[in-house]
Design a protein that fits this description.
Helix content: 40-55%
Shape: globular
Order of helices and strands: EHEHEHEH
Radius of gyration: 12 Å
Length: about 100
């Protein structure tokens, strides 16, 4: 498992080439304004690169117990290794810490 800051569609092949099998997108669409890539575009590129991908938007500073439970479920269901991203990677790190403690 690893985290990253915002990724773009053109990053997905490099993610696959690095050996990751899955991507979790934790950044809600539109959070970063119009320059933020749409999750649908990242999902399409991830699938084209052979990655499993899940969109699980989590509001910064608003992580819920349901968010943690879903993240934990994704970590058990998705092929490993998994790379999760948000704006800076911090949100994903907090989700992972909470999911592994739960």
């Amino acid at each position: 498992f690893a985290v990253a800051p915002q990724l773009r569609p053109d990053d997905m092949q490099a993610v696959a080439d690095a050996g990751y099998k899955s991507v979790i997108i934790n950044r809600p669409d539109g959070e970063g304004g119009p320059e933020q890539p749409a999750s649908a575009d990242v999902i399409a590129a991830a699938r084209a690169a052979g990655l499993a991908v899940e969109y699980q938007p989590v509001v910064s500073g608003g992580m819920t117990t349901d968010d943690v439970a879903r993240f934990k479920q994704l970590l058990t269901e998705l092929p490993a290794p998994v790379l999760a991203y948000c704006r800076s990677g911090t949100r994903c790190t907090h989700l992972f810490a909470a999911a592994t403690e739960a």
